[in-house]
Amino acid sequence: MKILRINMKDLSVKEDNTIKYSSLGGRALTSKIVHDEVPATCHPLGPFNKLIFANGVLTGSGASSADRYSIGAKSPLTGGIKESNAGGVSGLKLGRLGIRALVFEDVRDDFKIIHVSKNGINFDDAAPILGKDLSEAADILREKYGSHIAVWLIGVSGEQKMNLAAIAGQDKEGLPTRFNGRGGLGAVAGSKGVKAIVLDDEGVEKNRPIDKDAFREAMKTYHKWLMETPGTAKVFPELGTAGLVRTTNTLGALPTRNFSTGSFEHFENISGEKLRETILERGGEGTPTHACMPGCIIRCSNVYVNKAGKLVTSPVEYENIGLLGSNLGIGDLDDIAELNRLCNEYGVDTIETGGALGVLMSQNVLSYGDVDGTIKAVKEIKEGTPFGRIIGSGANIVGKLYGAYRVPTVKGQTMAAYDPRAIKGLGVTYATSPMGADHTAGQVIRAQVDHHSSEGQVKASKDAQESVTIFDSLGMCYFGGGAIQGRFDLIADLITAYIGQKVTAEFLKETALDTLKLEHDFNRKAGFTKADDRLPEYIYMEENPASKTVFDVPQEEMETIGVESDTYRLNN
User: Fold this and answer.
1) Which of 161, 264, 275, 503 is the right S-S partner for 326, CB 3.0 to 4.6 Å?
2) Where are the beta strands (DSSP E) in 265-378?
3) Does the residue 107 lie in any domain?
4) Strand partners, 142
């Protein structure tokens, strides 16, 4: 697997054989390159930032739920290091081309389509797809390059370099709806003139493990674990991530009306059960059980359809329901799905968009539950109006512009769809993760703790942050964590058989810890202090009416997370 460096200023390509990167993949690789090569104080949209697309070590191996990839850069939203990962087939196609990572350097003023094939890399004019909705742009690319391709794309938000701009990958049906959503990485792509990456694997053979027999045995055991675990065998395939709506509402953690409370009176209408029932009743092109990656056993995705059974969008996930639904006082799945669709078409992060809209509603610029007004506001993102650009700046800037006190952000990024007063371990993750308020950086909702108590939350978050970094570096879906339960010896055996080099569970854990140290170190060099590792003030002061709790995990205890980075910086 090779690393290719693409200078977007002069459109040159060179292969990188740097030894220190050779054993890394996914998040471990993106964060290592950002830490070592990007000046921490540089402008995120300037020539010194780099944008890295990196496959996980197991991406393309054939193991279930292991075709994920990471994208990393310095974030224009947080000002710190950022990694965002997604599923679909784009990473798989890159792996089939024998590429571990694409590293984009420098900037340019116009936009290009980067065509990657076994014959090399070509640069084509992106003018035919500029300003288009992502679904239309993807269709145009398939017409030009063939139906077998996969793509990465930015939308109009990325063209305009908005803070909430995402990068879209493609699912196995060709829909550009698998998003690297968080951190404004689409804006970084826009600054470099990267409108689309076409991954053309025509004439390329399928990846094969070095030790086929050992790989087959390890994979058989891993798949058996997935099928024996209720979450991955039944809950996710039936309800997807939307199955969390009931859980979080019961805990008082479902974000409602700009995180003012954690319980929504219409939660039944937007629950995972209602989502499944609606899709099954409508039939047609819809399905409540969908795999975004070939061969995925978990199948947590869905395809949402209108009353005529025609595709609206795929998927409608818990985060979208929470931030575009209850957080905005909207309690109808059709309305949420339409907002979800618009966000997908414009290439924006649904979480950050919902956060920005929620702050606007708290300031009476928009009204809670006003679907028509909300849809009109989102459409202004595409139009690039001043109001659209305000929304595109993200919730933190919206809060500053309108003088809002209750702005649910950490390190400039909107909190995911869990009120940290009710799931306190996630509050720890939001505050201490180098990624900002990102649930995927350390999800604790299934941790065996009392979520309303301050006890045990720091350990739960720390363990989750370390564990998820392993998954992110391997290209594995974290939803398999419930089946693996920390038994990384088997995963190490799987990797050993696949790449032909001995890998141990200890090595995987050490790499994860090193990655977190690098990320914390980058943020410190970028100017982050302990003051940045805190939740919004009102979360400590104002009781969540649904959970009857405030966030009260001791700050000095939380500050033990990431402290190793200071030692790392001094010794390196």
Assistant:
1) 264
2) 287-290, 301-305, 311-313
3) yes
4) none
Indicate whether 414 belongs to any domain: no
Work out whether the CA dihedral 123, 129, 135, 140 comes out positive or negative: negative
Residue 495 lies in a domain: no
Q: Which pair of structure tokens corresponds to residue 376?
A: 């009109």
d(CA 351, CA 365): 19
* Cβ contact 460:447 at 8 Å: yes
3-class DSSP state for residue 98?
Answer: coil
Q: Is 220 helix (H, G, I), strand (E, B) or coil?
A: helix
What would the two tokens of residue 524 be?
A: 């410190």
- Report the first-to-last Cα separation within the chain, whole angstroms: 28
Q: How many domains does the chain have?
A: 1
Give the domain CATH number at 36: 3.60.9.10
**Domain limits at 42?**
2-199
Q: How far is CA 406 from the centre of its chain?
A: 24
Contact 181, 438 (CB under 8 A): no
Per-residue 3-state assignment (H helix, E strand, C coil) for 114-141: EEEECCEEEEEECHHHCCCCHHHHHHHH
Q: Which amino acid is at 105?
A: E
Q: Radius of gyration of the chain from Cα atoms?
A: 22
Instruction: Based on DSSP, count helices (H) and strands (E) in the chain, helices before strands.
Output: 24, 17
The one-letter amino acid code at 61 reads S
- Give dist(CA 184, CA 311) in Å, integer: 27
Backbone angles phi, psi at 70, to 5 degrees: -120, 150
Is residue 105 within 8 A of residue 189, CB to CB? The reply is: no
Residue-wise pLDDT for 10-67, tens only, equals 999 999 988 889 889 999 999 999 999 999 999 999 999 999 999 999 998 888 889 9
E-strand ranges in 183-331 read 194-199, 287-290, 301-305, 311-313
pLDDT at 564: 55
Instruction: Tell me the C-alpha distance between 446 and 464, whole Å.
Output: 10
3-state secondary structure 270-284: HCHHHHHHHHHHHCC
In a domain, 253, yes or no: no
Conformational region of residue 21, where left means phi above 0, alpha means psi within -120 to 50, and beta covers everything else? alpha
* Residue 281 in tokens: 């009743």
Give, as one character, the DSSP assignment of residue 196.
E
Phi-psi region at 373: left, alpha or beta (left = phi > 0; alpha = psi -120 to 50): alpha
Nearest to 181 by CA among 416, 349, 12, 20: 349
pLDDT digits (tens, 9 = 90+) for 99-148: 999 999 999 999 999 999 999 999 999 999 999 999 999 999 999 999 99
HSE value, Cβ hemisphere, 13 Å, CA-based, for 189: 32
Question: Of 357, 352, 349, 416, which Cα lies nearest the Cα of 186?
Answer: 349
